Amino acid sequence: MAKVSPHKLRHTFATALIESGRTLDEIRVLLGHESIQTTTIYAHTSNARVAAAAAALPDVVGLSMVGMMPASSK
Length: 74
Prior knowledge:
The protein is mainly α. It has helices at 6-19, 24-31, 36-42, 47-68.
């Protein structure tokens, strides 16, 4: 069985929060980090979450493009 350390628990905690949709800034505060760069060391994203984000890209781009269209001057 692998040894569990406080350091590994911090990684697990941060990763679980990322997977549940919490922001890096929220996790930064909970871990007590001053810098968000430190938080990124602890918070890992799963391949499934990255794939879901990539799959959502067409919808995100389509929605933002609609919002950026100039109003008709009829």
